[in-house]
Design a protein that fits this description.
Layout lengths: L1 H22 L9 E7 L5 E7 L4 E6 L5 E9 L4 E6 L7 E4 L12 E11 L5 E5 L3 E3 L2
Antiparallel strand pairs: 1-2, 2-3, 3-6, 4-5, 4-7, 7-8, 7-9
Length: 137
């Protein structure tokens, strides 16, 4: 019984951390905002939020553990669009948007995110691909 309870507690920690990241963002979650989470070893993980207004992508590391968050933006067919690696390893986020001219996604098209954790000088690992979302703003 105790091991089942411990597994439930461990499973809840990333969800709580993700909720805190979303709440600390530049705005509140809305129908135009979609988020995903990918867990890694020893509580590490990566979270990503996409807001259609301004094509804003927020990439967040969820634990200070030597891993960082990495997100590949892909077309619905799987073609690479761009990659963002979180600059932090301490529960902070890196945000990019089309305001810079480098992160614009075409309107009325479908995309997906590949969310991973990465350790310096290693390949991305513990990746999870999001459901397809529509950038219709």
């Amino acid at each position: 019984m105790k091991s089942t309870r411990m597994r439930l507690v461990r499973a809840a920690v990333p969800a709580v951390a993700l909720g805190a990241l979303i709440a600390s963002g530049t705005g509140t979650a809305s129908a135009a905002t979609t988020w995903w989470y990918s867990g890694g070893p020893h509580g590490s993980g990566a979270a990503a939020t996409f807001r259609a207004q301004g094509d804003q992508l927020q990439v967040c590391d969820v634990n200070s553990d030597g891993y960082r968050a990495l997100v590949d933006v892909q077309t619905a067919a799987g073609a690479h669009v761009y990659r963002v690696t979180d600059s932090y390893n301490d529960n902070k986020c890196t945000t990019v948007s089309d305001a810079s001219g480098h992160y614009n996604l075409f309107e009325r098209r479908s995309y997906r995110l590949r969310i991973c954790v990465i350790k310096t000088s290693q390949s991305p690992s513990y990746c999870k691909t999001s459901a397809t979302f529509y950038n219709g703003h």
